[in-house]
Structures are given as C-alpha cells and as structure tokens.
Amino acid sequence: MELILASGECDYVNEVICAPANVNELFEFRQPIWTILGFPITRTVFLILAIAVIVSALLFFGLRKKSVIPSKFQALVESLVSFVKDGIAIDIIGPEGVKYVPWLMSVFLFVLVGNMYEVTPGVNFPVTSRMALPVMLAAISWIVFVIAGIKRQGFRYFLGIVWPSSVPVALRPLVGLIEFFSILFIRPLTLAVRLFANMVAGHLMLTLLLVSGWVFISNVGEIGLKAGIGIAWFIMALGIFVFEIVVIALQAYIFTLLSAVYVQTSLYPEH
After folding, report:
1. Domain count, the chain
2. Is 166 a domain residue?
3. What are phi and psi of 259, to 5 degrees?
4. Residue 233 included in any domain
5. Domain for residue 39, yes or no?
6. E-strand spans in the chain?
7. Whole domain around residue 37: which residue ranges?
8. pLDDT tens for each residue of 30-48
9. Which residues, 6+ apart, have CB-to-CB distance to 135 below 8 Å?
10. Is residue 207 part of a domain?
11. Could you read off the pLDDT of 108-160 as tens digits, one per residue?
C-alpha cells in the first residue's frame, strides 16, 4: 500500500481510483535491504529465500514423525504430499511419476507460498508477479521434460517432434515445424506468462482498491459524503481478496499439473 501512496500525490477529489504514476513501483524493489559478499539482498530476493526456508520447514516438521494418529499439522502436510504424489505425479505421468514427486512437490509449494505473499499482511507482494521468477520455474520444467524425453527416446525425441509419424507424410513438415516451436518454445513461455499475468492482475487490483478506499475514507473531512466511495472499494476488495485465495491455490496447481503433463508427453509421445 505504501508504494502507491509514496508514488505521488493523489487527487482524491476528482479521481475515483488513486493510482501511481508508474505501476512498476508495485513490483520493483531495487533498493537492497543489505549486502552479503557484494551481492545486494533486495526485498524480492529476501522473500524468495524465505520461501525456501518456509517450504523446507513445512516438509521437515510435517514429515519427520510417522505417528499412527497424526497431528493436524502432520495430517495437512501429508495430505499435500499425497495430493501431489497421487493426484498429479501418478495420475498424470503414471507409475514412473513417483520419481518426479520431489520436483513436483517443490514446484507446487514454492509457487503456492510465493503466491500466498499476495494476501499475507505486511507483505502484500506475490513474488511470482515478477516475470523473472515464473520464467525461471518454467525453464526448469522445460529442462526436466526435455531431459525426460531424451533419456527415454534418445535423440529420436527431437525426430518425433519435427517428423511426427502419426501425421500423413505430406503434412509432416508443416506439423513438425509447428510442434517444434510449440513444444520447445511456446510451452515454457505460456507456462510462465500464465502464472505471471494472473498474479499481477490480482495484486494490482487489490492494491488499487484498498489504497483508493483508504485515501477516500481518511479524507472524509475534506470530501464529505464522497468518502463513501472508499467503503465501496473496501467491500469490492474484500470480494476480490477471497477470490484471489482461490486463484493463488489454482495457479500453483495448474503450473504443477502442466509441468507433469509435459513430462508425460515426453515419456509417452504416442499418447
């Protein structure tokens, strides 16, 4: 919230929504909090490192004890692991999906926690709204499914892409070209953009509505009844807040699910 208020003066008398002059201020944290060995630790870097700590602690303390009657916390963590293992890895990839569970579990929890920052008081900044992070995660998924295809089929994996045997010979050059760019370039791009765009949209909408509402209400003495607009913004933001919690979990699931689907198509191209 402070980002918009600090970005410039708001004309709350004439404007319905108080927006910053440059919306990049909502997502950029270039000033380092501190420097370690010459490497600047910005707020974004700190939050990313915090995700690793949170996910590691979650899995460690949730799975370290195998109790006959698990605690609520242990049951929650085991349910998450079972959901990724059975509902994504095995259901999508097949029996071989078991060996991809650590990677898929890491991706799911990393994206989930990174998205949850959006609705975390005092943070209110999903790190997945920075394009570099979804691109990095998509690149890792790309590497995994390409290596999986090469390991299973050898370099026939690429031949199967550019010269698909299930397509009539006359159409193979065209279909092969489309498949080549689709599988090796479009897949990781859309994987990253889908996550990035959804988190930016929700974060931006929540920030604008909440801050605009606060600006109107806090200046009730100057604008009178017009301050009621701020209450409407808060009510609208509350609805979006609840909706964003659903989006946060859904985007983590979709990113992980598609990563598993891409591995499955590399292992079993005939499907």
Report:
1. 1
2. yes
3. -60, -40
4. yes
5. yes
6. 34-36, 39-41
7. 23-267
8. 677 777 777 778 888 889 9
9. 188, 192
10. yes
11. 999 999 999 988 888 888 899 888 899 999 999 999 999 999 999 888 888 88
